[in-house]
Specification:
Blueprint lengths: L7 E5 L8 H11 L6 E5 L1 H11 L3 H12 L2 H4 L14 H20 L6 H9 L14 E7 L5 E4 L4 H8 L9 E3 L2 E5 L1 H4 L3 H6 L4 E5 L14 H21 L4 E3 L14 H14 L1 H7 L13
Parallel strand pairs: 1-2, 1-7, 2-3, 7-8
Antiparallel strand pairs: 3-4, 3-6, 5-6
Helix pairs in contact: 1-3, 1-11, 2-7
Length: about 300
């Protein structure tokens, strides 16, 4: 008896440096012979998802990630400037204090602090110069429109541009002002683009959720930090609600990875793999009895 194959989607979430966990997810799915039919991604999830949709496997993606993180082009992005390193002594504390104030000052007087071309040079080293429609599998990235407040799903046109729009972190990289929309990184409102996967025709969706948990160490310092905390809670709750629309939600334990730290690749892969392995039985049930069979049974 044969069963109709159910279209399976996977939604790779945003999280910047935490996105190395996506590599572990892909590694586990490959080992289990599970191949999603539809792929979506937000921010770093858009970047890794685009390579996965192009047909590139775990080993090649991981090797490319290691190479690009060590490249001069990536270093020019200056992400280490934002990294939350431990304060070891008073001089380090003073340095961090001045660094933060410098960043805030630049963000007050400028709409962005890193030029788009600097980011484009990195992306062009990773992403193939093709149109999304030419990919072997349906793929889409998600961005946020600052005018309407709506998520914008990009499933056509230049793959490089689609990824760039989805990873353009607001305030750090320039916005995309086009067609009456102002587009930025989709993470604030759709960190795990589950709904986008359904919109492309997926009947069941695996979500990969990388958002950090709310810190329990909140202390009242000022009216401003109270309002920042409220915004943080609102963003967390919205993204959680959207992520839980997935039929299976993978949540790697990567809270110790700072969003600007891209060097914990091995740790991220391990945790992404571990979290996926725990959900394999649930994932297998999504596609029906024959969905994930690697070879035919013989009597």
């Amino acid at each position: 008896m044969y069963f109709r194959k159910t279209k399976l989607g996977i939604a790779f979430g945003g999280g910047s440096g935490k996105g190395v966990a996506h590599l572990g997810v892909i590694k586990c799915l490959e080992e289990e012979g599970i191949q999603p039919d539809i792929i979506t991604g937000t921010s770093i999830g858009a970047l890794i998802g685009s390579l996965y949709a192009y047909g590139i496997g775990f080993e090649q993606i991981a090797n490319s990630a290691r190479d690009i993180i060590e490249s001069d082009e990536f270093q020019k992005l200056g992400f280490e400037f934002f990294s939350d390193h431990k304060k070891e002594h008073s001089f380090k504390q003073l340095n961090d204090y001045l660094k933060e104030r410098f960043i805030y000052a630049k963000m007050v007087i400028k709409p962005h602090i890193i030029e788009r071309e600097t980011l484009r040079k990195v992306i062009e080293k990773i992403i193939p110069d093709v149109d999304i429609e030419d990919l072997p599998k349906p793929f889409a990235t998600v961005t946020l429109d600052l005018i309407s407040g709506n998520d914008v799903v990009i499933s056509k046109g230049s793959l490089i541009d689609a990824v760039l729009k989805s990873i353009s972190i607001a305030g750090i990289f320039p916005v995309w002002d086009e067609d009456g929309k102002i587009l930025v990184d989709g993470g604030p409102a759709a960190s795990t683009p589950v709904e986008a996967a359904y919109s492309l025709g997926a009947k069941r969706v695996i979500g990969v959720y990388l958002c950090s948990r709310l810190s329990k160490n909140f202390k009242i310092k000022s009216a401003l930090n109270i309002n920042f905390r409220i915004d943080e809670i609102t963003k967390f709750c919205l993204n959680r609600i959207k992520a839980e629309k997935a039929d299976v939600l993978i949540e790697p334990r990567i809270h110790s990875i700072h969003w600007a730290d891209y060097k914990k690749i091995d740790y991220g892969i391990k945790e992404g793999y571990r979290a996926t392995k725990k959900k394999i039985k649930e994932i297998r049930k999504l596609g029906g009895p024959l969905r994930f069979m690697r070879k035919k049974r013989t009597s």
